[in-house]
Amino acid sequence: DQQVKQNSPSLSVQEGRISILNCDYTNSMFDYFLWYKKYPAEGPTFLISISSIKDKNEDGRFTVFLNKSAKHLSLHIVPSQPGDSAVYFCAASSGGSQGNLIFGKGTKLSVKP
Amino acid sequence: DTAVSQTPKYLVTQMGNDKSIKCEQNLGHDTMYWYKQDSKKFLKIMFSYNNKELIINETVPNRFSPKSPDKAHLNLHINSLELGDSAVYFCASKRQGGSYEQYFGPGTRLTVT
User: Which residues in A lie closer than 8 A to residue B101 (C-beta atoms)?
Assistant: First the structure.
């Protein structure tokens, strides 16, 4: 049973526009959420995170929004650039001694020039 | 000066063989992980390990075993390889306590024929 769901396998956006990637979770014990970006033949790289005590975190062109009541988070990229084309993974953690992450299946973002 | 490195990047082998994948991190992190990304693109935790505790995902066959010669290394040994073991394996590391961000290696694509 998937605890972290990314229901859109792909998203295509025009350069300069906003990209919105969505993620839903089922486990109310999750208290920290992360977004990773992955290029082909490379490992995932950390992008941005948010604690469950916040509803928004911003870093440059990237903003993550968290709606705890809906168990939903989203990543906004503004403005989108062709170099943002990659697979984006949502991940969640409930803490614990080793901070294991549960990943979604990923959304492939294509930003067209 | 790669933070998390894995060798080899590609591994092709026959069913029944025993193989190892090496992982090294130079970040001074205390906790290391192995993930498997299968054909459906799910990233699933296999093991998490620090100098005090090994946590094994209960779904991982006991043919898989992590070996840590020191804090900077966590190698993955696989005995009696099966076709279903074909996947991309990622190593990751994290600083103990504090943040949840994990840093990933570039992955090892294992193909069992």
Answer: 34, 46, 49
